[in-house]
Amino acid sequence: MNIATHATPTSITTLPADARAVTPVRRATYTIAEVCALLGISRATAYAMLRAGAIPARRLGTRWIIPRHRLDTWLNSDPVEESATVWGVAQ
Q: For a designed S-S bond to 45, which of 41, 73, 75, 77 qualifies (C-beta 3.0 to 4.6 A apart)?
């Protein structure tokens, strides 16, 4: 059995060799900071858009989380129709 040793400052953990080959799980949600970076907007703008319902999101306790698939769908939707509806702009 192949065993890899991973040293941390306070302990040594022994892991099976195949544990190193595990593919990281792609998170299902974004944070506000990640959405700001992806869209190139400020935190204030992001929070205003969240409160207005422009960015699809959910509250999780005191945090906002943005489901990855809903953000992707929103980004791929018709931008004129979407922004006019949410921001109250006349078409």
A: 41
Assign residue 53 a region: left if phi > 0, alpha if psi is -120 to 50, beta otherwise? left
- Cα separation of 32 and 66, whole Å? 8
* Residue spans per domain, the chain: 29-86
The amino acid occupying position 87 is W
Phi, psi of 39 (to 5 degrees): -90, -15
Which of 6, 29, 30 shows the shortest CA–CA distance to 19?
6
Question: What's the whole-model pTM score?
Answer: 0.58
Encode pLDDT of 21-78 as tens digits. Answer: 666 677 899 999 999 999 999 999 999 999 898 999 999 899 999 999 999 998 888 7
